[in-house]
Amino acid sequence: MRVFLLLAVALLWPVSGTAAVEPALAPNTAALKKIEALKPNHAVLLGDARVVGDFNDIARRFNLDKTGPRARDYSLKMVWAPERKRAIFLGANHRVPHRLNDVWEFDLGALAWVLLYAPDNPRSYHDLGEDVSDVEFRDGILVTKRGGPAVIAHTWSGLTYDPVHREALFMSTWATDQKKAVEQLGGDPNELYGGPPLWAFSPETRQWRPIKTTKPWPKAPLAGMLEYVPELGGAIWHTNNFKMRATWLYDPAANTWRDLGASGRGADFAQAAPQPEQIAYYDPQRHIVVAQRGLDTYHFDVNNRQWTKVVSGDEAHVPFGHDRFASIAFDPRSGHGLLVDMKRNTLWAYDPDKPAWTRLTPAGAPMPAGKKRLPYFDPAYGVLVVIDGTKVWAYRYQAPSH
């Protein structure tokens, strides 16, 4: 019964009293018929997604009104907003063709990309870009006049969704010389906020907001992991390298950070926990976070605050986990993880109970092989989705019988 309830929460988080999801989109009946007819271990091309939203000049300059967001180097992660039954995407490219703070959502039933927040001015790698007229130094933070982050990072694995407060949480750590940027705007760099650069985005109000807390707070190295954990009432922030070896918890209700004092089982923390550039998902049925880094698989036991390396394999038996080349998600119907390895163009399933990986060979349409793919799992329709620009592919997994 407990597993059933957790699964129900994962699929249908309570949404009573909420406003209607806007924009309302007409269903794509042809795509829905294909999804409904999709057999286990089969895949299908659903067609081309339309792209809708209020596009500004910056969005049109980069043809986003035609292409949608597309994958952006180390920004591959999409997160599920259960009350909207849509997947959220944001994050910047490494350098080219743009570095933007736009926010999107994808509606599978309507087969549509929706621009929720049109981009502010483009930013450069180390500074605020050629046009800083839209940036202010406000309350210790570099923010655009529309309220968005002026310093925009890759997502790596630093993006998650808080279903209670209905916001995407994003750790926007980047290499921008912020002191120099503040001086450029005529501000005092000594007034810069010293805490982690955590931001929230509400898909309902379409507004960004910076999150400031008092100490204690964690460091925020590049390529850490941010993952919402319901039992803890917030999101864990994890890194494991010389800059910070720890797992912290951000509590949105209290607006505080707390070091969870996580340890390593059978080894010290450095050996038992994943290093940066990992990919991960939360498993509500087993109360663990599953992370893949390289050819190693890790579990974080939420109740015991303990990391364990559970698989260390080779390329024939284990997928390669890296936030630039792969994406991982939880399938609540099977209780397994699904990983898209875009470097080798392969699809894998993970059984945490064994623990072991299985390479999948779907029947039907082959998975798209483009260089701008964005995968996510859609709990509303029970399929893994890979979006290649606007081309949409779906796969229905079924765990093998024992």
- DSSP strand tally: 29
Shape descriptor reads globular
Secondary-structure-based class equals mainly beta
Q: From the coordinates shown, what is the CATH architecture? A: 6 Propeller
| CATH 4th-level superfamily | Kelch-type beta propeller
Question: What would you note in describing this structure?
Answer:
With 402 residues, this protein is mainly β. 9% of the residues lie in helices and 38% in strands. The chain starts with a helix and ends in a 6-residue tail after the last strand.
Detail the topology: elements first, then pairings.
Layout: H1 2-11, H2 29-36, E1 42-48, E2 50-53, H3 57-61, H4 64-67, E3 78-81, E4 86-90, E5 103-107, E6 112-117, E7 135-138, E8 141-144, E9 159-162, E10 167-171, H5 178-184, E11 198-202, E12 207-211, E13 225-229, E14 234-241, E15 244-251, E16 256-259, E17 263-264, H6 269-272, E18 279-283, E19 288-293, E20 296-301, E21 306-312, E22 326-331, E23 336-341, E24 346-351, E25 356-360, E26 363-364, E27 373-378, E28 383-388, E29 391-396
Parallel strand pairs: 1-26, 2-6, 17-21
Antiparallel strand pairs: 1-29, 3-4, 4-5, 5-6, 7-8, 9-10, 10-11, 11-12, 13-14, 14-15, 15-16, 18-19, 19-20, 20-21, 22-23, 23-24, 24-25, 27-28, 28-29
Write out key terms for the chains shown.
5-stranded mixed beta sheet, Neuraminidase, 402 residues, single chain, globular, mainly beta, disordered N terminus
Question: Can you describe this structure in just a few lines?
Answer:
The protein is mainly beta. 9% of the residues lie in helices and 38% in strands.
